[in-house]
Amino acid sequence: MSIIKITDLSFSYLQDTPVLKDVNLEIEKGEWVSILGHNGSGKSTLSKLIIGLLKADKGEIVVDGITLTEETVYDVRKKIGIVFQNPDNQFVGVTVEDDIAFGMENLQFEKEEMLEKIDLYATKVNMKEYLKKAPHMLSGGQKQRVAIAGILAMNTDIIIFDEATSALDSITELKVMKSISELNEKHTIIIVAHRISTLKNCNIILQFENGEIVKTGTFSELYPF
Q1: pLDDT-above-90 percentage for the chain
Q2: Is 118 exposed, middle or buried (CB count within 10 Å of its CB: 0-12, 13-18, 19+)?
């Protein structure tokens, strides 16, 4: 069963300069899909279109049976959590603890469950000792860890990581990827990737070039070395 279906999707930031060109894509419920491509290939633009931060020039996006429109965008966002490459775009709280809790508060989690998840996911990303710190006092990598913890805690049906591990050290990245593997047992995962090392455990890889999907396959099929 497709949890995301994209049909003939096109988008341009500038007229006559297409970033995505008639993209067709289906992602099955429970899959782990990795999107790979050079800067400017359209992979991050696709994630922003899926959650309604950008409006397509043409085409249709359906998320868990809901066609994405201006009227349905907030219903779609209840089903999708996203971590961007720049975590500053996601910080709203006074402390790290507040920021991890923010998404759960919007989804009306019980306080006891929130506290348990804050502790669990702050530990998983090595940020438990910083829970009372102000986000602006953190390094770029630390901010990224907090943003990841907040999205993991929200427990949405679909989770998109838009180059979200780019500023992490290798040890923390391994821990985050382990958490993602555990989440994939119950959730659909989409990773916009910049490191081949993050692709090994996914179900399918989509390689983008110039706004189009040019290759599709498993890790072993695309990288048989």
Answers
A1: 48
A2: buried
CA distance 115 to 105: 11
Q: What angle do CA 130, 176, 144 make, to 5 degrees?
A: 50
Q: What is the 3-state secondary structure (H, E, C) of the chain?
A: CEEEEEEEEEEEEECCEEEEEEEEEEEECCCEEEEEECCCCCHHHHHHHHCCCCCCCEEEEEECCEECCCCCHHHHHCCEEEECCCHHHHCCCCCHHHHHHHHHHHCCCCHHHHHHHHHHHHHHCCCHHHCCCCHHHCCHHHHHHHHHHHHHHHCCCEEEEECCCCCCCHHHHHHHHHHHHHHCCCCEEEEEECCHHHHCCCCEEEEEECCEEEEEECHHHHCCC
pLDDT tens digit sequence for 87-113: 666 677 789 999 899 888 888 889 999
Neighbouring C-alpha atoms within 13 Å toward the C-beta of 76: 23
User: How many CB atoms are closer than 10 A to CB 13?
Assistant: 9
CA distance 186 to 202: 14
Q: How far apart are the C-alpha atoms of 152 and 139, rounded to whole Å?
A: 20
